[in-house]
Amino acid sequence: MRSKIKKNHEFFELSKFRRRFMLLVLLTLFCILFSRAFFLQGMQKDFLQQEGFERSNRNIELYAYRGKIYDRNNQILAASETVRSITMEPNRVEFKKGDKNKLANLLGIKIKYLNKKLKSKRNHIYLKRKVDPKIASKILALKIPGISTEKDYRRTYPDQEISAHVVGFSGNDGNGLEGVEYKKNDFLSGTHGYKKILIDARRRVVDNLSEVSVPVDGKDVHLTIDKRLQHIAFQSLKKTINDSEAISGSAILIDSKTGEILTMVNYPSFNPNERMRTRSPFVKNRVITDAFEPGSTMKPISIAAALEKRVVNVNTKIDTGNGFYKVGRTQITDTKPHGVISVKEILQTSSNIGVTKIAEKLSKKYLWQTYSNFGIGNLTGSSLPGESKGVMRDYSSWKARDHFSASYGYSVSTTVAQLARAYTPFANKGEIKNLRLFKNDPIKIGQRVLSIKTSEAVLKIMESVTEEGGTAIQASIPGYRVAGKTGTARQFVKGVGYGKPGERKYNASFVGLAPASNPKFIMAITIEDPSKGSNYGGVVAGPIFRRVVAEALKIYSIPQDEIEIKDETDNEKKEI
Amino acid sequence: MKLNLILFSLLIVFALVKINAHHLYRVNHHALEIEKRKTIDLKDEQNQLLIQESSKSGNGRISEYAKSKLKMNPPEKKQKRIIK
């Protein structure tokens, strides 16, 4: 009985067959697992590791900010602002009813264009770049699957067209294309960085991997421009050009002691914030790029040359005759006959014959050397791109006509910036100053081109130009002594020459210094072809000088000169 | 045997501490990344505000507001009187 009853352990004991079968199954399973492990870790190692890296590692670009451009009072002229770029994953996009139209309207694109983009086989495409953040948030509010936004940066110019020519603009890639943006591109643009990060299953950044490149932000640029005066100069220029129906105009205001450029404006201008800016015909900074024959604004330099050489003095009398004077085959005329007048009166009345007779006493070489010393035919030092040197041929190639015509501003051409610089010796006791646009540029020591006595004498004579009987009374500023010189030069048109009387085009210019007692500001203005009303430099450009420099004197708290102030109401009382 | 047990327990404890430290590092790193992103956003906002300030304080805009809303106009020649 007992032998038939199985013991407890015997009851659970497997049969030999079962035992072997199970062992075989386990061995087979182990072999399968082992071979799978071998396959994955041995043969597929690289592929799987790559897949793992791609899922957990990310390369992130670290944005380097482009430097800002400031004016002399730390007011922003150019900076980068945040915008959004709208991206799309075509495979994931599903539009609800009406969403497609809404999206196209918000982005300002056509449905056709959107449909074309939807057919794209790429996983990630840009629908529109640099979109206003408000529009981007409206698009996100539509909650269209597959449509998302990315942070982007756009260059913004708060001053719009006022400082457009000086500041310039940059392209979509962030690189400067014009003006300071172009000139200082290396300085302004930083170096973007990147880093490799590790993300977890919830897409949280949990670690930095070894490869990190630190971004280096671009540096800020500080200009010598004064935004307040820039605005006044631009508005004055705009008003004058519109009133006189002129083609264009340019003006520059400088600090005569340091050569710092305070304003540099052109009209017509362009808005650097608009995308079509590069197609504008007014992109050039004509203050430095366009050379023109300066006309009578050259006369103070010619007279300074003669005074320095002592071939005349301020009171020397010169016979300008009946307003006509022939040199070789060239007829030189004055606007009216002046008869016998002093050197001072020659400048005051802007007599071409008088200056020609003075130039006759000087050699070609000496005149050429003087103009060259005054910066004619040389760069101004503003270091802006595209600056023209103007045209001044070597004296050896001058014909007899050039010798005389150069003395009253023909046969040579200058830019507006060169003209302003050429007047700095009269404000600095004979020292010429280089122009400076960047505050951090070192101030260069001025170069003496005139004696103190001559520079003071010419300055004194130029004061008479803005006084009663002068050609630029419109440029006078109440409470201050103003010196200056007008210029009304005929335009030379290729193939046509200077044109017949009645068909001629003129450049009306004025260069002024204030206060004449100790000049702080020099402003040069030129207006191209004023066709309505007068075309004289004093009448057209003089008021711009008056408006801008009067404000500059006020803003910079320059004390008034001790002169008698006329009460304008007195005249009105007398009239009554 | 006793020493081995103690060493084994210590090993387990240290391993757990290491795992916990690593976990804490990742949590803190994530928090740091969030703060860095906030810094960048604030920098962007600061730039935006500077641009806004610059465009809103522009002379053109001020003179336009002065003329249109405050009815301020520069005095005409007849309205000026210079006091000696």
Structure description:
The complex is a heterodimer of chains A (576) and B (84). Chain A is of the alpha+beta class and 576 residues long. Chain A folds into two domains: 60-91 and 99-222, Penicillin-binding protein 2a (Domain 2); 227-574, DD-peptidase/beta-lactamase superfamily (Beta-lactamase, 3-Layer(aba) Sandwich), CATH 3.40.710. Chain A is 34% helix and 20% strand. In chain A, the strands form six sheets. In chain A, strands 2, 3, 4, 5 and 8 form a five-stranded mixed β-sheet that branches. In chain A, a hairpin with a 5-residue loop joins strand 2 and strand 3. The termini of chain A are far apart. Chain B is an all-alpha fold. Helices cover 77% and strands 0% of the residues of chain B. Chain B has helices at residues 2-56, 59-68. The mean pLDDT of chain B is 89.
Written as H for each helix and E for each strand, in order along the chain, the element string of chain B is: HH
Task: State the end-to-end distance of chain A.
Answer: 157 Å
Global mean pLDDT of chain B: 89
Give start-end ranges of low-pLDDT stretches of chain A: 572-576
Shape type of chain B: rod-shaped
Report the CATH C-level class of the largest domain in chain A: Alpha Beta
Number of DSSP helices of chain A? 22
